[in-house]
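Long-time lurker. I teach an intro course on protein structure, and each term I like to show students one example going from raw sequence to a predicted 3D structure in token notation. This year I'd like something fresh instead of my usual example. Would anyone be willing to generate the tokens for the chain below so I can use it in lecture? Attribution to the forum is fine with me.
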Amino acid sequence: QVQLVESGGGLVQPGGSLRLSCATSGGIFSIYAMGWYRQAPGKQRELVARIGSGGSTNYADSVKGRFTISRDNKKNTLYLQMNSLKPEDTAVYYCNRASTWVAWGQGTQVTVSS
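-- Reply from a regular --
Happy to contribute to a lecture. Here you go:
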């Protein structure tokens, strides 16, 4: 059974940076496109960044130029570097496959506030 464990969230001031990590186990990480998702209070979960098995990346317009998704297939780990953070980036962040989701992890809270 695939397990996803997100970490790296926290409280940061506007303009700050955070790096999220997603450790995966129980599956063949390298063959799947992966994504970072976020869910703000009262809103639906949305995909903010996607990385293909070959390393190609796509971003939501709201984070383009500020967030960078990457993966380390040897460590079965997904990353999200978040720079120039804004209050509207406040949400719980999750990782999962880009399609055919597996069970969601607990997520990691990111709060951007002065």
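Some talking points for your students: The chain has no helices and ten strands. Strands lie at 3-7, 10-12, 18-25, 34-39, 46-51, 57-59, 67-72, 77-82, 91-97, 108-112.
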